[in-house]
Each structure stands twice: as C-alpha cells, then as structure tokens.
C-alpha cells in the first residue's frame, strides 16, 4: 500500500488543535511570568554579598539546569504528592514546572546582564548617596533589562517548546491533543505535521516580535 | 575648620599594600590637587574618602563624621562629598536633566518640579542649559563631564572629589571642564582634585600634594611645590613631566 498525504485530514486537524493550543499558551505565559519573577529573585540573590543567599541561588540553579525537565515534571507531579499527600491539578503543575524550570535559566540571564553593566554605573549611583537597592532599581536594572531581552526571548521559545513534555503528566496541551486525534484517525503523519506547523508559526512569530521590540528600544535611546 | 581629616590611612588589596599611612587635613574652602605617577594610590585615597573603597585601617573624618563609625550613614556622607569620575559615568538611559535630578528626587525626596528647577539652574551654571533633553551619548566628552559636575552639585555637597576629570578628554575639550572647576573654586567649594593638569594645579590649588608609593612625599603651596620641590622623587617626576 502506497502512502498518500491526506490533505483534508491535515486541514481539519488544525482547528481541532486549538483547544490544546489554548493550554500551551496559558502554561507558557503563566509559567514564564512566574519564571521571570523567580529568575529575577534568584539571579539577584546569586549576586548577594552574603554567602548564604548566594549558595541557595546556586543550589536552585544547578539542580534545575542539571536535570532533565521531564524528570522534574514526573517528580513534581507523581513524586511530590507521595510525600506531601496532596495532588496538584495537571494545569497548575504544568505552570509550576515551566516556572521553576525557566526560572533557573532566567536567573542566569539576569545575573549575566546585571554583571555586564559597567561597575562605574553603580559607583556613580552610590556616590550621589543612593542606597544599594535604589542604585539597582533606577540605574542598573533598567540598563540590564534591555540586555536581557534577546536571551529572554530565546528562553520564551525554549519554554514554549518544552510545554510539549507536559503531556506525560496529562496536561491537554498541543502535543497531547494531537496524540488524541491520532488515536482515533490513525493519521499520524498529517496530525503530527500539523502540530509541528502550529509550534513553528508561534516560535517564528515570537522571534519576529522580539526583533521589532529590540529595534524599537534601540531607536528610543539612540533617537 | 577641617572638611576632611585623614589619619594614618592604610589600604591593602589582598597582600598588596597600596596606601601605606597617609595623614591629610583639608580645610573648608581649600582646593587641593593630588599628583603622582600611575599606580601610586591617588585614586585609592580619593575613593576611601567617600568609602567607595573601604580603608584597611586608619580614620577618615568628613565634615565631622567618622566614615567608618557604625552609626554613620554612609549614604548621607556621600551626599556631602560628591565625586566626579574620569569616565564621567553618566546614566546613559536617562536624559541629561534626569541625570541631574535623580539624586535630589530619590535621595533628598525633593518634588519633581523643584528638582527640575534646580537641575536647569545647575545645567545653566555649567553652560549646558540647552542640553537638558538630550541623552549623554549625544554629548561631547567635555559636555559629559560638565553634566557629571552638575550631577554632583545637585546634592549641594560640601566637598567634591575629582578623579582625573580631564584625562579621558580630547585636548581641545579639557579647557571647558577646567573653566567650570575654576569657577567652583572661586565660589569657595572645597575640592580635592587628582589631576595631571599642572597648569590647573599651579593656578587654582591652595596646596599641591605629591603621592608616590602609597605615601605623601610632598605637601606644599603651588609656588614652592613647582619651583623648589624638596622631595627627590617629586623632582624627578616634575623633570619627567617637563620633558613632555
Ligand atoms: N580593586 C583593586 N584590586 C587590586 N588592586 C588594585 C585595585 N584598585 C587599585 N589597585 C592597585 O592599587 C594601586 C594603586 O591604584 P590607584 O588606582 O589608586 O592608582 P592611581 O595613582 O590612581 O593611578 P592612575 O594614575 O593610573 O589612575 C595600583 O597598583 C593598582 O593596581
Ligand atoms: Mg587613578
């Protein structure tokens, strides 16, 4: 039997994927929003003067970056409830996993960007009597944030793709929705291709949007 | 009255002792220039005065406050002792006016309108009234340094510490910055100026200090300092400078 690409199935699949897409987007945005807060917090902690916050930040960052996200997801969803005696709903678990995972990478982005700012900036801030906190808030952070945008955009794309791993904990995201369609239609080629196309459209759009944002920011200071 | 009193200052970086016991008193209204070869510790002394560097031992008293005492608010001391850097260190993401009003607003809790009024008057003072809305990168080096001076003045400091304020400038831009500094000196500002501008030291300073190998080798009025230096190292140093 010869393989025939089934165009109608391909086109019918795409609207059917939208329900999954909704979860993919919710988890990506929710996870990254929380992940950014975690990343900012631990990234700055890694730059602390005291060894204790610094060590805590290093433990978090290395533990997450040194283990596969799939293992983190299984541990949080199946492992932790054994110890704590409470089950987390899949969607919430998905958001937490993306947050905790991206937070570790974002912490390194934050640390690197903050450290890349000329130390003379902090000295100038301190020399006019600003506290360390205000120097960070008004002088270092705004400059560092601009440098974070390209790597944050990159992390955005990575985390979006990583949400597909969450199918193992039963989150009805894009890939799992595709899998369910295959289960009834047996058209694996068309359906998974449609899934891939949807991911690709999103990642390319993000990359595009970021380039526009960067140019815009560039213009604003150069003028 | 002494504005700054330094008593037996020592500073080491790891094993390297950079400042090896410096005593110095600077009176209110005095202009003191510090000269010396590269790496002799001039910046280190200056940066200890507002505690950008922490002294290893000794005492520094700024306007009556021991900067190392636990009860001293170092941020307050820094508003009394402003600093101007060789590389300007303006805030590139803010307009010139915002550079000058940040301290008054965020440190002194001044209202925006009052702060901008102060900012405009300081920019006028340094001859940059028309640059308020520009960003630092649109300015020449000399203009940047004048903004930096206005920024340090915005806290109404009692003394300003200058660390080679003209060393990063093209020769033709040095004059405009020195002019502003002369004007400040004439108004009675207490100034400590690390510089290689011998002309400025001769004309404007009340005292000139020669630092070499981490100690004060000579401390004299400009006439004596330049025409009849007692210290052997200073004689050599001035001889080398004259050759250029
Ligand atoms: N953060 C630091 N860590 C280690 N060594 C330092 C540090 N800062 C300065 N030094 C050393 O201390 C010595 C004195 O430095 P300082 O910057 O005070 O010299 P300077 O007289 O200002 O020189 P220049 O004319 O080049 O500015 C130099 O040998 C320098 O290498
Ligand atoms: Mg120096």
Automatic annotation (TrEMBL), chain A:
PANTHER family with a match to the protein in the record: GLUTAMINE TRANSPORT SYSTEM PERMEASE PROTEIN GLNP (PTHR30614:SF20), MEMBRANE COMPONENT OF AMINO ACID ABC TRANSPORTER (PTHR30614)
Function: Part of the binding-protein-dependent transport system for glutamine; probably responsible for the translocation of the substrate across the membrane.
GO MF entry, a single one: transmembrane transporter activity
Any one of the GO BP annotations: amino acid transport
Organism for this UniProt entry: Desulfocicer vacuolatum DSM 3385
GO cellular component, one term: ATP-binding cassette (ABC) transporter complex
UniProt keyword Glycoprotein, yes or no: no
Membrane topology, record value: Multi-pass membrane protein
Family: Belongs to the binding-protein-dependent transport system permease family. HisMQ subfamily.
Residue ranges of every copy of the ABC transmembrane type-1 domain listed in the record: 21-210
Residue spans crossing the bilayer: 20-44, 56-80, 86-107, 191-213
NCBIfam families, per database record: HEQRo_perm_3TM
Name this protein carries in UniProt: Putative glutamine transport system permease protein GlnP
Keywords: Amino-acid transport, Cell membrane, Membrane, Transmembrane, Transmembrane helix, Transport
TrEMBL record, chain B:
PROSITE patterns reported for this sequence: ABC_TRANSPORTER_1, ABC_TRANSPORTER_2
Pfam families: ABC_tran (PF00005)
SMART domains noted in UniProt: AAA
Top-level lineage group: Bacteria
Localization per Swiss-Prot or TrEMBL: Cell membrane
Positions of the ABC transporter domain: 4-238
Alphabetized GO MF terms: ABC-type amino acid transporter activity; ATP binding; ATP hydrolysis activity
Keywords: Amino-acid transport, ATP-binding, Cell membrane, Membrane, Nucleotide-binding, Transport
Membrane topology, as annotated: Peripheral membrane protein
InterPro entries named in the record: AAA+_ATPase, ABC_ATPase_HisP-typ, ABC_transporter-like_ATP-bd, ABC_transporter-like_CS, MetN_ABC_transporter-like, P-loop_NTPase
Coiled coil spans: none
Signal sequence interval, chain numbering: none
Gene Ontology terms: cellular component: plasma membrane
Similarity comment text for this entry: Belongs to the ABC transporter superfamily.
Alphabetical list of PANTHER family matching this protein: AMINO ACID IMPORT ATP-BINDING PROTEIN, GLUTAMATE_ASPARTATE IMPORT ATP-BINDING PROTEIN GLTL
Identification of the protein by name: Amino acid ABC transporter ATP-binding protein, PAAT family
